[in-house]
Amino acid sequence: MSWNTIIFVVAPYVSIVLAVGGTMYRTRREEFSVSSLSTQLLEHKKLFWGSFSFHWGILAILTAHFLFLIMPVVFDVWNGSQIRLYLLEITGFALAGWALGGLIILIYRRITSRRVQVVTTKMDIVILVLVLAQIITGMWIALGYRFGSFWGTSVFVPYVWSLITLRPRPELIAPLPFVLQFHAALFWAFLIAFPFSRLVHIVTLPVPYLVRPWQKVVWVRRDREFVAKEKKDRASV
Amino acid sequence: MDVRAHMSMLFHLDKCIGCHTCSVACKNLWTDRKGAEYMWWNNVETRPGTGYPTGWEDQDHYRGGWEKNWVGIDLKLQSRPKAIANLFYNPALPELDDYYEPFTFRYEDLFNAPEGKHQPTAIPISAVTGDPIDIEAGPNWDDDLSGSPIYASNDPNLEGVSEEVRQQMGEIERVVFNYLPRICNHCLNPACVAACPSGAIYKRGEDGVVLVNEDECRAWRMCISACPYKKVYYNWSTGKSEKCILCFPRMEIGQAPACAHSCVGRIRYMGVLLYDADLIKWAAEGPDEEMFDRQKEIILDPFDPAVIKAAKENGIDDGWIDSAQQSPVYKFVKVWNMAVPLHAEYRTLAMMFYIPPLSPVVSTIEEGLVRLDIAREQIDFELFNSLEKARLPIQYLANLFSGGNEEVIEKILRKMLAVRIYKRRESVEGIIDDATLAMVESADTTPEEIEAIYRLSTLPTIAERFVYPPYHREMAAEAIYGDPLARKGDVGLGYIMPPERGP
Q1: What span, in angstroms and rounded, lies between the C-alpha atoms of A120 and A20?
Q2: Would the N or C end of chain A have less CB density within 10 A of its end CB?
Q3: How far apart (Å, rounded) are the C-alpha atoms in residues A164 and B232?
Q4: CA distances from residue A4 to A7, A11, A136, A168, B359 in whole angstroms, order as listed
Q5: What stretches of B262-316 show up as alpha helix (H) in DSSP?
Q6: Helix (H/G/I), strand (E/B), else coil: A186
Q7: Do B240 and A118 touch (CB under 8 A)?
């Protein structure tokens, strides 16, 4: 088995299984450990500049990747005009730069704030390094292999779809420069780290809050009656 | 009518001596853990003062509670989309230094110090970082420091109190202050519950205790800002929110919460209140000046047959109804009209009630309250009739409790004075004259009621102060396991995660 197969066929499937299985286990059986682990109480000034920029920047970039994946045709049409291609690439680069700026502030904060140091785990550092490497390689690609949104539709999109449709075509990746391969491989590292780090907080994005009633009342007695009734029903079946 | 029961506490501030025993009892029982050192689920403040966390009543800064708008009420903190947008940084969150940096002392230095000329000392260190620190604040740093320009003069409740009166309150050797013990108010319309993006906070239907489900908590921290009383805390070690649980494990076995049980001044009462959950919205959306009246309106009479019937339909058993009828809190709040919640204008419908403190009624000596030219038996009435000269201004108490409604406070103070004067006449002079009876009537009370208030205020037994309903935990066990002895001998209820910070 070649390295190409290991990294671009085996690794993706292994990491996806780990990420999904691990996240399901952790959010169900070890729910107490799932938290965004905010440190705002301990330090808030640097957090404002760092967290705000990083999160919104990275969210925008991830959304762009996702849209690119599900509707490459739209990007092809958009990039038909050079002006629009430049506009798209510059916007993407600026957003990545925003995220990178935020991340650098966050790393600086982790290193310099004594209070934040106290609650920093090894896994936090691993994640920070991973994210830093991912953003830097991404920006490197954007700058050095112009223009990703142009050639990506013939390399990135078919490769990912080949994985999703269970007919992997790692040969699409093989001829690419090292940075691109590294950028892609790093994503599997993220998936592997996902259930074992604070990254799990991503899946707990509280969207139901937008529609739930303001107040929440829990009846211990009624719940118990309900449980008892369920048991009785099950026993009678 | 949707009748529900609520466990409520009542604080008789006239009896509070500010000893902090409640705070220490609570601390030892619940918050003596890593990450919780800075939390005081129960704290006692000196008023006028800025409290803990510093300036918690400044809602322009912390954005707690509800505010009225053209459709009804909304959280002051956020709209729903704004809650999601602010997940990455919550602009209204207090910082650790707004509470204080928790500290301990390096006691081992006393034993490990090398031999030298001087006595070794245990230097203070931060309980967060372990580094040596200068202790600059604590949970009661302004204890008894009323009158100080740093703390007392920054009390937002002094709004509307004239400069002259403020000067008098801070006069050297004649400083005016009272104590204000605070726990979570277990509100009927809790802002923390409404603000939680994860839906981790809830109110228990049976007894109204507001709890955080720490399994569901994701540290979005909105509850901390949204609570106008700043009684939800963030555990920086576990990354979960925590708050006062009204000692529900103790209540369920018929014991008073640790703060109430340990109270030296015996200022705390506990009992059941029945309320109409259908009217919560109506009460929370009332105009400012009606807030307290409406809240009282939704607390129901446990002797009313219609209420009893509706309560039973809602699954409230006879034990609870009986307990509601004996409730000292019901008597003080609803029958005698002597208690008010803290800051009714926050619209959370706080369910812990306070009897305001009765200060010596005199502005200054120069105002001539204890004038020598009036007969001794007249002095009492001089006090009674000059409430506007109260050393702790009515305006101040009204800002603190009733949302600025002075009339409410005035009525309570008049009744308390009536009790005091009546009982003094009875026990010292041995006679109740017509003037006293006239005063009793003008305070809107009767000698019988005065006797009852006097008994429950000064001579209650522990069983009269804490009236507990039967929680019937044994029945709950039966409901879950069928056989109540099924789990006997087991070590616990199953797989429980240690409360540790996740990776």
Answers
A1: 25
A2: C
A3: 45
A4: 5, 10, 23, 11, 83
A5: 280-284, 291-298, 305-313
A6: helix
A7: no
Q: Which residues of B touch A105 (CB under 8 A)?
A: none
Chain B residue closest in CA terms to A197: B503
Chain A positions in Cβ-Cβ contact with residue B131 (cut-off 8 Å): 114
The C-alpha atoms of residue A156 and residue A92 are separated, in whole angstroms, by 17
| pLDDT tens profile B63-85 | 999 999 888 899 999 999 999 99
What is the per-residue pLDDT across A143-161, written as a single tens digit (0 to 9) for each?
998 888 888 888 889 999 9
Closest CA to B351 of B284, B287, B263: B284
Q: Is the pLDDT of residue B371 over 50?
A: no
Query: Which residues are CB-neighbours of B448 under 8 A, at least 6 positions away?
Result: none
| ipTM attached to this prediction | 0.90
Nearest to B503 among A32, A39, A121 (CB): A121
Assigned superfamily of A3-208: Transmembrane di-heme cytochromes, Chain C (1.20.950.20)
Cα-based distances in Å from B401 to A58, B48, B159, B357, B443: 47, 13, 13, 11, 20
CB-CB under 8 Å, A44 with B502: no
List the 168-197 stretch of A: residues with Cβ below 8 A of B. Answer: 196-197
- Bridge partners for B67 per DSSP: B74
| Helix or strand (DSSP H, E) at B104 | strand B103-105
pTM: 0.92
CA distance A191 to A197: 10
Q: Which CATH number fits domain B267-465: 1.20.120.350, 3.40.50.1370, 1.10.3650.10, 3.30.590.10?
A: 1.10.3650.10
